[in-house]
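Milestone 3.1: sequence recovery, worked example.
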């Protein structure tokens, strides 16, 4: 019995909350001395509890440390914070654009090696800003900026489509997998940082400084080499079958320049690869279901031929933006962010053995055919707009 009792360790490794600096956001920059500046957004539990909150302090604090490596920085930070940093609840990792261009392999190694870190946080690139500045911005609605960034990226990916939420474990997989390159969403500051980092930023009805998710970064290996703009980013997500819900607009079939807004409520992209003369040929087929959300022109939507015309225009627009994205990835970046190479490996493993060593020369010349199928199920609560009844302007 005594032997059994001594073998029970209980909660010997338990850490009390007052002893911990709970990190929710982390930013990594390169310094002029060629070492790392690591910023930790640490939550103040008391300021997030209504009964304990003083109302005078921000709910998070930013602590920083400089070091030659990220592991040392985490310990060096205790010189400014009287707690041990605790990473199990981290929500967002921001990497500066400057550092990402030099390579992120050291960052990934540290983040994946630490036993306290769960890999379910998002990784983003600070576009045109330092990572530390992104973490300084106070956000409305959500008091903790790291949570704001996490929720905004998740929500925009599900409902808009030009953003791409990538967790650490998937990022590692994209970098190490042959025939696949990584892509990460960008985030920037809209407004003046000097105001955005002050409490005034969340006390006004229209915050002077905001965080905006913008663009998808394109990688080659572990280095950032360029960006997709909003249109290209949406095309990217259609190609990789990552569109859950989105919206867009087309010109009215009558050609007068007026617009019709379209809601896409479902999209599914199937990728098929065939070998022609020992070369891969890709066929992408996108099936979309949607609704008409707004009509700014005179068109009779009770007629099947008009609905068919709108469906055709939607399909053509999606096809064009997908083609534009593929062309940029092939000709400007030579980066297979669509995992076309991995698709060849999975479907034609013998052919991939011959192609893999020369994929950088094969990818820019890949032939890709795209077919779109659009079904519009609803015109909303109206068949035709009241605009149909307005007199013609002279």
């Amino acid at each position: 019995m005594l032997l059994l009792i001594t073998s029970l360790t209980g909660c010997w490794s338990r850490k009390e909350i007052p002893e911990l600096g709970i990190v929710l956001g982390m930013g990594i920059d390169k310094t002029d001395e060629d070492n790392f500046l690591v910023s930790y957004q640490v939550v103040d539990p008391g300021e997030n509890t209504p009964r304990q909150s003083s109302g005078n302090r921000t709910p998070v604090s930013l602590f920083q440390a400089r070091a030659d490596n990220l592991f040392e920085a985490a310990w060096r930070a205790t010189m400014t914070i009287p707690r041990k940093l605790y990473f199990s609840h981290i929500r967002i990792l921001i990497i500066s654009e400057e550092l990402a261009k030099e390579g992120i392999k050291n960052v990934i190694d540290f983040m994946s090696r630490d036993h306290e870190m769960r890999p379910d946080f998002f990784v983003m690139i600070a576009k045109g800003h330092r990572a530390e500045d992104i973490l300084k911005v106070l956000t409305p609605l959500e008091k903790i900026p790291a949570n704001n960034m996490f929720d905004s990226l998740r929500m925009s990916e599900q409902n808009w489509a030009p953003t791409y939420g990538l967790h650490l474990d998937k990022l590692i997989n994209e970098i190490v997998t042959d025939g696949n390159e990584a892509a990460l969403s960008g985030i920037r500051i809209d407004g003046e940082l000097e105001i955005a980092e002050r409490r005034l930023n969340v006390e006004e009805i229209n915050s002077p400084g905001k965080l905006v998710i913008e663009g998808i970064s394109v990688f080659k290996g572990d280095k950032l080499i360029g960006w997709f703009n909003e249109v290209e980013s949406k095309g990217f997500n259609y190609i990789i079958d990552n569109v859950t819900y989105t919206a867009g607009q087309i010109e009215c079939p009558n050609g007068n320049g007026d617009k019709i807004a379209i809601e896409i409520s479902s999209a599914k992209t199937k990728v098929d690869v065939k070998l022609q003369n020992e070369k891969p040929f890709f066929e992408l087929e996108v099936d979309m279901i949607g609704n008409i959300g707004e009509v700014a022109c005179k068109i009779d939507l009770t007629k099947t031929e008009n609905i068919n015309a709108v469906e055709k225009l939607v399909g053509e627009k999606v096809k064009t933006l997908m083609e534009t994205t593929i062309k940029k990835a092939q000709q400007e970046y030579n980066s297979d962010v669509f995992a076309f190479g991995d698709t060849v490996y999975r479907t034609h493993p013998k052919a991939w053995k011959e192609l893999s060593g020369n994929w950088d020369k094969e990818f820019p010349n890949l032939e890709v055919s795209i077919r779109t199928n659009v079904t519009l199920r609803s015109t909303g609560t109206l068949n035709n707009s009241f605009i149909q009844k307005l007199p013609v302007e002279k």
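The chain has two domains: 19-228, 239-394. The mean pLDDT is 90.
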